[in-house]
Amino acid sequence: MNGIAVAPSDLIAAGPHHHGGLWMTFSEWIPDVAPPSHPVDARRLGRALRELHDALRTFDGDLGDLRALRTDIKRLHGLLQPTDGVAADAITSLRARLDALDAVVFESSLPSQALHGDVSLSNFFHTPQRRVWNDFEDTFRGPVQWDLASFVVSLRACGADSHFTDRMLDSYGWDSEQELAPFIAAQNVYYEIWRFYDSQRRRPDYLQPERR
Description:
The chain is built from seven helices and six strands. It is mainly α. The protein has a single domain, classed as Aminoglycoside phosphotransferase (APH), C-terminal lobe (Aminoglycoside 3'-phosphotransferase, Chain: A, domain 2, Alpha-Beta Complex), CATH 3.90.1200.10. A hairpin with a 4-residue loop joins strand 4 (124-126) and strand 5. The longest helix has 21 residues, at 181-201.
């Protein structure tokens, strides 16, 4: 994609490879990478995401969609277990919030295209030679609203205010953050489910449920 995304490795078959219960891929080595710790140029970030989407728009290969993503999120939610830090009611509430977004997000009839799937400041690498998008393991086909919402959530987590995110969206060519509200809500509930699960699986007493 014209150098705006990390390319597959030319030293080994890119994969995916399955080893030790894990799936992995291999990509090119990019020296002198400096992921930004905080947002510094809203307009540059907006243009970078727009360039990525313009390049991805022509991809016509097989990809999952929002329905498949919803299935994955619900599977992850089904693995959550009540603990001292997570009450059963909180787990039930997460599922209710997720279900409430079915029609407006996961069953959306909005135009779709290939997306990055996990747009964040930490996945946008800076080097002295170029700026490049990384980590396409969550790519799927869906409305650009998903990636835009993901970027807004990431920028906010890094300290960006509403003026900054407005400038980023304006540079991308997007009118209003308000139109992204359902997708931002979906991003937030997805993150909370993942955070609970990640904390849970790190406990020494956690037993991974058997696959069926």
